[in-house]
Amino acid sequence: MEGDCLSCMKYLMFLFNFFIFLGGACLLGLGIWVIVDPTGFREIVAANPLLFTGAYIMLAMGAMLFLLGFLGCCGAIRENKCLLLFFFMFILLIFLAELSAAILAFIFRENLTREFFTKELKKHYQRNNDTDVFSSTWNSVMITFACCGVNGPEDFEDIPHLPHSSLEKATPEACCQRELQSREGMFLNKEDCLKGNERFQNRQGCYTVILNSFETYVYLAGALAIGVLAIELFAMIFAMCLFRGIQ
Fold first, then answer.
1. Transmembrane segments in this chain: where (predicted)?
2. pLDDT digits (tens, 9 = 90+) for 140-154
């Protein structure tokens, strides 16, 4: 009876990890195709910072799942205690990292307020200085989401503007409306925008825009995170039971 239970657990674990392996292979292949595709899709992704970052996240997740599934499959079907132990440790590290991230997000959630982002923006933002990571990131966010500052263009009134620009007022270039929401998109009217003409400025603050964009996905992301943690926990239990059952 014990042997039948062990055999059943072995094949269940193999099947479970085989699907993880296939999912990882698909994500890995898709990520590689997006990054090296010569037909022009790569340029579209590169023009959008969110898509560009997402492609590399997809690539990293695909590689991780591919390796995880491979270790689990080989360890289960070959009844290799060494591979099963590697699988268990790998899952445990991921589980602890995700759990730590969730706890930190819960602890520091109150710091991610409108006031916090406004204070940081006024303190560190250097307008069109693309060599500064903070400023470049903020510019990319404002261009991608067609928004301006945390609350609106008024956030930039106390931030020093570029000395060599005679047109630039409080509003930075990233807040000017474009035909296409990317760095390569043509300005509707850059000169009037920098002079303060509200018709050619994005007036809505990024805090509200981003909050509205992701609000519908918060509960889905929470449920998905709980589901992933539960699957990882069961995977660790299966791996350890199989590890202990192998003679």
1. 12-36, 56-77, 84-108, 217-243
2. 888 888 899 899 888
